[in-house]
Write a structure and sequence with these properties.
Elements (H helix, E strand, L loop, with lengths): L5 E6 L2 E8 L3 H9 L1 E6 L5 H8 L11 E3 L5 E3 L4 E13 L2 E12 L7 E3 L2 E3 L4
Antiparallel strand pairs: 1-2, 2-7, 3-6, 4-5, 6-7, 8-9
Amino acid sequence: MTMSAVSSLSLDPPQFLACMDNRAKTLAAVAHSKAFCIHYLSHEQRDLSNHFARPANDRFNGVPFRMGDVGAPIIEGAIAYIECRLAHILPGGDHSIVIGDAVAGEVPGGEPLAYFHGGYHRIQQ
C-alpha cells in the first residue's frame, strides 16, 4: 500500500510504525505474515506509488520484486527499504498502528519521490 503515515519509533530496539486503515487488505496480510517491508520510492516510481494506492487483488502482478529475509516482498528500484518483523498491532480508531522491529535494510540511493499538498514534487537540492 502507498502510505503517508510511516515513522521511525525507536532506536533501541530499531522500530518503525505505520498506520493502516482497518479495512485494508494489507493490514490483514501483515497480521497473517507477521512481516512487512517499508519502501522509499524513487522520483521515477510515481506510477508504482499510484498503483499501490489503489485496491487490487494481486498488487504485485507485473511489479519486479524479490522476497526478503523476513518473507516480505522487496520492490526493485526503491531508493531504500527496511524489512520489519511484526511486533504489535495497536488500535487507533478507524486505523491500526502497526509496529515492526527493523531487522534488515538497504539504501541503494537515488532521488526520492515526494508527495506534498496533493501532488508529487521533486526535492530541490
